[in-house]
Amino acid sequence: MLPTDEYYIQKLIDEGEHVHQDFKFAISDARKIAKSISAFSNTEGGRLLVGVKDNGKIAGVRSEEEIYMIEAAAKMYCLPEVNISNKIYRVQGKDILEVTIEESKNKPIYAIDENNKPWAYVRIKDENILADTVFLNRWKHNKQEEKVIVTYSEREKHLLNIMDKYGELTLNKCSKLSDIPRTTTSRLLADFIRFGLVEQVFREHTFYFKLKDDITP
User: Fold this and answer.
1) Per-residue model confidence as pLDDT tens digits over 77-103
2) Which of 10, 34, 124, 191 could cross-link to 77 by cystine, CB 3.0-4.6 Å?
3) Can you give the pTM of this predicted structure?
């Protein structure tokens, strides 16, 4: 029977990488780790297993410097800074670091790049994906304490009719076909998603938008 630590870690490894879990062989760049922290914080939370290869093999944490870089990523390269928790497990004679990231109540959490520019990420399946403007608008609306009233004018009806006619569309296509400015289209799509009219789909590294199956404009 495996020791408790080994059993726990092996059980996690057997799950593979998914929306709530990512393997990291080594930590060499705090800014790159900030992307993962941003993605988990902006989605449903999750964990990093540091010292585990992509194929699930145990490699072990190489030095305390890696732990320092994770802390730096959360505090120096995430905006606002993120509180994370670390725990070390001894597995096969090697140290495995579990980093737990909670879902943020103050989205978006940005990761600061090498040019000091902030970018927000989301976790989709086993990937960290740059959030689009529709996500940013959704988070902006969620921060507003006052109730958001969505009008249903000819403009909104026109956009929904376009989506009903053409099916899945990118933000740019929605804007072009409806002849509504891109920034306005992004805000409208965010509202439609919040009120259950439209869903956002990620496919082939592109965000698409479509009407919910039971919605008729």
Assistant:
1) 999 999 999 999 999 999 999 999 999
2) 34
3) 0.92
Q: How many residues does the chain have?
A: 217
Q: How far apart are CA 70 and CA 66, in angstroms?
A: 6
* Paired sense of beta strands 84-91 and 78-79, if any: unpaired
Q: Which domains are seen in the chain, by residue range? A: 4-130 (3.30.950.30), 134-211 (1.10.10.10)
Strand partners for 210: 199
Q: What share of the chain is helix, strand, coil (3-state, %, to 5)?
A: 40, 25, 35
Burial of 206 (0-12, 13-18, 19+ CB in 10 A): exposed
Q: What is the DSSP letter of 149?
A: P
Q: Which residues contact 204 (CB under 8 A, 6 or more apart)?
A: none
**Other beta carbons less than 10 A from residue 28's beta carbon:** 12
